[in-house]
């Protein structure tokens, strides 16, 4: 994210548990974490068209439904 992309509603809260970081160190931390988040969010977009799974491809070779009108008495002797 660049400074131009940040809205007024986007606020970052940092709680320092140990040490005494300078303002520049905190700004660098926020910049690095914000960039990593923006890259992850951009990579997490769903594909436009769903890809056929291996399960869907393998169902192509299954036999069709049984024909109920034929019946079992065809081989009577």
UniProtKB/TrEMBL annotation:
Pfam families assigned to the protein according to its UniProt record, in alphabetical order: ACC_epsilon
Gene Ontology MF term list: acetyl-CoA carboxylase activity; propionyl-CoA carboxylase activity
The name this protein goes by in its record: Acyl-CoA carboxylase subunit epsilon
Organism: Microbacterium ulmi
Lineage, broadest ranks: Bacteria, Bacillati, Actinomycetota, Actinomycetes, Micrococcales
């Amino acid at each position: 994210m660049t400074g131009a992309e940040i809205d007024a509603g986007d606020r970052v809260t940092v709680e320092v548990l140990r040490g005494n970081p300078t303002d520049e160190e905190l700004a660098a931390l926020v910049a690095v974490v914000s960039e990593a988040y923006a890259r992850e969010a951009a990579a997490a977009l769903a594909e436009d068209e769903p890809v056929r799974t291996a399960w869907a491809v393998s169902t192509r070779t299954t036999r069709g439904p049984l024909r109920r009108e034929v019946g079992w008495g065809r081989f009577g002797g």
